[in-house]
Design brief:
This protein is an alpha/beta fold. It is 41% helix and 17% strand. The chain has one domain: 3-Layer(aba) Sandwich (Rossmann fold). The strands form four sheets. It has an eight-stranded mixed sheet, sandwiched between helices. It has a two-stranded antiparallel ribbon with strand order 1-2. Strands 7-8 form a two-stranded antiparallel sheet. α2 links the parallel β3 and β4.
């Protein structure tokens, strides 16, 4: 079939297999061309990534495999291809990663399941016992708008609303390329609680309990979950909003996990704070597309912009497995320092006050934002002919050496 992007609002409902392969290969190329040859003794060797479809989860898997030669198991929930429809991008991304990792002699397997469910946890534990035996790092990077809790027979849906009072501000209509005003009503108590249930630390905690009880966590195992904090411009719709309350719950969960895994008085659970980035999740949050477009422009002008793989690689090598990362008062690992620098924030705020539809491309990097968004789904790469017919169902990855190194 010929595959062109089908965009509905803030999501692309199809994906290009060759483009997704390019998306993964570009990140691998960055890691292999910038790899630090000095590998620490405490490097992770066996890793579980929960939420490895795209964004920071996929970047973590790539960085860990190609920096530290770590074997990885991934859990993701994506649509598989059919004769008439493409898979979602995460399915193609993981197939591409698995192929490249196995070419390097690494174990790389994935489970396509709803990670919120107990069955996914049990199947993952079974797979760990059959392959890696134990894991020494668990990356939690799950992003979903809803969560079904089987024991309650209830589905919780998250909302992106302010807390306390309504919000009025600017937003970017990415379809029409227009800057408009937006007003959002304050969330109810039930909406706040539901958002925390979906996007907070409860499921992360359940995963760590299940893995620990099954005996598949190595003695020195670490775990990390990712968050975004931001500053003044994003605070009303992020930090002081429903999603901010959910992210605060990650801090609570980290403390509880540390108590649970505190076998040798060493910290086990970490929160990694990353910069604003074009991801499938951030594109859905009001204000964020406009803010990110402005931020990209200013950071690129100052030669301090980092993309997703660069952010994750820096966090892992300088913070999680290094001692050169900024740590805040709550013990979080911070690599959002370049975004939050006064020079960057002051200029973004200045442009925010005057930006409109007419000067959007002058003040903001909308083209960069749009291209990064398209590339999440395998589109927008220069050397791919999107007018050619492609097979939406790539050949399966060879499993011949799946148990090598176990």
């Amino acid at each position: 079939m010929i595959i062109k992007p089908k965009i509905k609002g803030f999501i692309c409902v199809n994906a290009h297999p060759q483009g997704c392969e390019k998306f993964v290969n570009n990140q691998i190329d960055h890691i292999t061309s910038n790899i630090n040859k000095k590998v620490p003794n405490n490097r992770p060797k066996k890793v579980l990534i929960i939420g490895c479809s795209s964004g920071y989860g996929l970047a973590s898997r790539i960085a860990l495999a190609f920096t530290y030669q770590a074997d990885t198991l991934g859990v993701y929930f994506d649509r598989e291809p059919t004769e008439k429809k493409t898979a979602s991008s995460g399915w193609y991304n993981n197939k591409s990663f698995e192929s490249k990792a196995k070419d390097q002699g690494l174990i790389a397997q994935s489970l396509n399941m709803d990670a919120f469910q107990d069955s996914a946890k049990q199947d993952t534990i079974k797979l760990i016992k059959e392959t890696l035996k134990q894991v020494d790092l668990v990356v939690y990077s799950l992003a979903s708008p809803r969560r079904f809790v089987e024991r309650e027979n209830k589905t919780y849906s998250s909302v992106l609303k302010p807390v306390g009072e309504c919000f009025q501000g600017k937003t970017l209509n990415t379809d029409k390329q227009t800057v408009t005003d937006i007003q959002l009503d304050a969330a109810t108590k039930n909406e706040i609680d539901a958002t925390v249930k979906v996007m907070g630390g409860d499921d992360w905690q359940q995963w760590m309990h299940a893995l620990d009880d099954a005996g598949v966590l190595a003695e020195n195992c670490k775990t990390i979950a990712y968050t975004y904090i931001g500053k003044e411009l994003t605070k009303p719709i992020y930090g002081d909003a429903t999603i901010g309350k959910a992210k605060e719950d990650l801090d609570r969960a980290a403390l509880e996990i540390n108590k649970q895994l505190n076998r040798s008085q060493k910290k086990s659970a970490y929160i990694g704070v990353l910069k604003a980035m074009v991801t499938q999740s951030s594109s859905a949050i009001p204000v964020m597309p406009l803010y990110i477009s402005l931020l990209y422009k200013v950071m690129k002008e100052n030669n301090v912009h980092e993309n997703c793989i660069e952010q994750v690689a820096r966090l892992i090598t300088t913070g999680l497995y290094g001692d050169a990362c900024q740590i805040d008062n709550e013990g979080r690992l911070r690599v959002d320092d370049l975004e939050l620098a006064d020079t960057i924030q002051n200029e973004v705020k200045r442009r925010w006050q005057i930006i409109n539809t007419q000067n959007l491309n002058e003040l903001a990097d909308f083209n960069g934002y749009r291209n990064d968004f398209l590339q999440l789904f395998g589109f927008g790469f220069e050397h791919i002919n999107y007018d050619e017919h492609v097979n939406s169902k790539p050949l399966p990855v060879c499993e011949d050496h799946i148990l090598e190194g176990v």
